[in-house]
């Protein structure tokens, strides 16, 4: 059951992914929610690479902060994409050994 706070568009997107994604009815759905390490994630990423919905799927996961492999990205990949999209998030970060505002 979907959470009530998702928009109708998000609900339609999820329904499309759940009916037309390359992972639908895959014999190893656990690959998309890897708990056994990167090997399973790599297998899921290979399936995603052939999926025509991967862009839509990635945007959905980015928007709704989903966990696991979505749209050919892992949790870490999507966190990097969020940081790249919001450069101000980097403003408070410094390299080790440098003071805030100091450049290497
Ligand atoms: S991109 Fe990957 S996770 Fe998304 S629907 Fe396609 S196969 Fe499934």
Explain what you see.
By secondary structure, the chain is mainly alpha-helical. It has one domain (3-88). The chain contains 4 helices and no strands. Iron/sulfur cluster (SF4) binds next to helix 2 and helix 3.
The count of strands amounts to 0
Largest sheet: none
Q: Name the average pLDDT.
A: 87
Q: Rg to the nearest angstrom?
A: 17 Å
Helix and strand string, N-terminal first? HHHH
Low-confidence stretches: none
Q: What oligomerization state is this entry in?
A: single chain
Helix content class: 40-55%
Alpha-carbon distance between the two ends: 50 Å
In total, the number of domains comes to: 1
Number of helices: 4
Task: Compile the SSE list and pairings.
Layout: H1 8-20, H2 38-48, H3 54-64, H4 75-85
Bound molecules: iron/sulfur cluster.
Iron/sulfur cluster binds at residues 17, 21-23, 32, 47-48, 51, 53-54, 57, 69-72.
Short description:
The chain is an all-alpha fold. The protein has helices at residues 8-20, 38-48, 54-64, 75-85. Bound molecules: iron/sulfur cluster.
Features:
single chain, mainly alpha, 104 residues, binds iron/sulfur cluster
């Amino acid at each position: 059951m979907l959470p009530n706070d998702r928009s109708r568009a998000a609900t339609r997107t999820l329904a499309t992914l759940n009916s037309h994604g390359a992972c639908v009815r895959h014999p190893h759905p656990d690959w998309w929610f890897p708990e056994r390490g990167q090997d399973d994630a790599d297998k899921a990423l290979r399936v995603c690479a052939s999926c025509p919905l991967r862009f839509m799927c990635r945007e959905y996961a980015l928007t709704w902060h989903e966990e696991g492999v979505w749209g050919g990205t892992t949790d870490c990949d999507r966190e990097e994409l969020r940081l790249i999209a919001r450069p101000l998030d980097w403003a408070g970060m410094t390299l080790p050994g440098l003071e805030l505002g100091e450049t290497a």
